[in-house]
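Aim 2 progress update. The chain analyzed this quarter is reproduced below.
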Amino acid sequence: EVEKGSAAEKAGIKVGDIIVAINDISIENGEELRDALTYTRGGSQGTITVKSLVNGEYVEKILNITFDYKQ
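Predicted structure tokens:
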């Protein structure tokens, strides 16, 4: 699920996208994703690389993002 109004939604991340990198740091599992997000500052800008299923094939996209402030 992509939370409405979140930084992820604003960046263009969709349900089903697979996050494979944050700021050029490879992400291979949920733990690595949590660790990478722990070290991002709210309000800072960066990139998220996702693989999206398009016409039966995964396509890699690099999205610009302004990270949310942690709650």
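The helical segments are 7-11, 30-38. The chain has a mean pLDDT of 94. These observations will guide the mutagenesis experiments scheduled for the next reporting period.
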